[in-house]
User: Which sequence fits this backbone?
């Protein structure tokens, strides 16, 4: 193999690939990336057996071939050379890198030892804009559990039917759900699957370009097809909670306030929050306000009032301020709506007049 390309293009692809390698000490081949050249395309591949990625890089191919090299070594090297044009050549499983001012050899492995890149057979796929999918995933993944004790809670649930894509995540203390209407989607059969939250985090990094992507899934895997990359992840084997039954349909208290006012006051109150991160919210129809208060025996006390339109019954409830600070920024509205049924029931937060995104938070009880 002999190829010539821009370092910035190769460096970008190798950086993505390294994130999808394994840190397995007994199988060093999984700590490596595959570089292949055939016809008019340079392909960079990596896998940790949970996810796999393939990135296409433009360049001049003098001779086809392939090589497998340690990901950390080549990524560190490419990030520290100033030259723009580089030449890569393979001899006896070793990678020779040449620039105008240096020559480098990186010891490699036989390409045939590298895991075969998975082929995903998809009967149907949907097309979405990359920014829309990225925004939607970012708005719900914050509610997914970071613990693998219950894999289904450490996942994001997809439900696709006709022209609707519903994405949800929950760690049992809060729930986020985003509904997307796609003009390019028309699946007559309901498709549901769970994507591990770690895979979703990698998808968020890949979905930065303003383009359309295709998304499809089979029984075991999901695939994202971008303009110059393929990303494949295993699916979570499990059943997502039937969460829709816990979302209230009517409320005794409804409050509307400016989102930025609420957020700034929550962050201010957090300075005085206790070890349990609790913040007390008092929704007062008579005072037309949401009163926030926190106290810490070693720091001090704090209270503040946020102007709001409050209808229905007054109610006082405690919540984890971090959960509120995670979910409220995901609401794409100037005004947000709080919906409650007393101090023991979950609070539903959404944008005023917008049902496409809902964030449900359980109150803190017994403290």
Assistant:
């Amino acid at each position: 193999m002999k190829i010539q390309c821009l370092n910035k293009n190769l460096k970008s692809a190798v950086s993505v690939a390294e994130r999808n390698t394994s840190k397995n000490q007994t199988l060093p081949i999984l700590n490596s990336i595959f570089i292949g050249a055939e016809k008019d395309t340079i392909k960079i591949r990596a896998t940790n057996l949970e996810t796999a990625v393939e990135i296409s890089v433009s360049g001049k191919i003098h001779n086809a071939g392939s090589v497998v090299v340690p990901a950390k070594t080549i990524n560190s090297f490419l990030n520290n050379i100033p030259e723009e044009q580089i030449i890569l050549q393979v001899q006896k499983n070793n990678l020779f890198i040449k620039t105008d001012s240096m020559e480098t050899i990186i010891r490699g492995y036989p390409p045939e030892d590298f895991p075969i890149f998975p082929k995903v057979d998809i009967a149907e796929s949907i097309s979405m804009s990359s920014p829309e999918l990225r925004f939607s995933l970012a708005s719900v993944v914050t509610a997914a559990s970071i613990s693998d004790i219950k894999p289904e809670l450490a996942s994001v649930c997809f439900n696709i039917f006709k022209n609707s894509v519903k994405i949800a995540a929950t760690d049992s203390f809060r729930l986020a759900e985003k509904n997307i209407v796609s003009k390019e989607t028309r699946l007559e059969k309901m498709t549901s699957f769970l994507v591990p939250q770690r895979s979703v985090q990698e998808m968020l990094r890949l979905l930065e370009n303003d383009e359309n992507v295709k998304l499809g899934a089979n029984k075991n895997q999901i695939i994202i097809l971008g303009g110059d990359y393929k990303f494949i992840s295993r699916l979570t084997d499990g059943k997502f909670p039937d969460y829709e039954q816990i979302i209230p349909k009517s409320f005794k208290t409804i409050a509307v306030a400016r989102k930025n006012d609420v957020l700034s006051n929550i962050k201010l109150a957090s300075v005085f929050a206790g070890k349990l991160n609790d913040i007390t919210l008092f929704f007062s129809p008579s005072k037309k306000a949401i009163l926030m208060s926190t106290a810490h025996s070693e720091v001090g006390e704090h209270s503040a009032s946020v102007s709001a339109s409050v209808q229905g019954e007054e109610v006082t409830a405690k919540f984890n301020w971090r959960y509120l600070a995670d979910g409220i920024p995901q609401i794409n509205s100037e005004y947000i709506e709080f919906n409650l049924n007393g101090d023991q029931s979950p609070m539903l937060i959404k944008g005023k007049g917008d049902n496409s995104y809902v964030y449900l938070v359980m109150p803190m009880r017994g403290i």
Summary: The domain at 2-113 is CATH 3.10.150.10 (DNA Polymerase III; Chain A, domain 2). Helices lie at 7-19, 71-78, 130-141, 197-206, 259-270, 321-327. The mean pLDDT is 93.
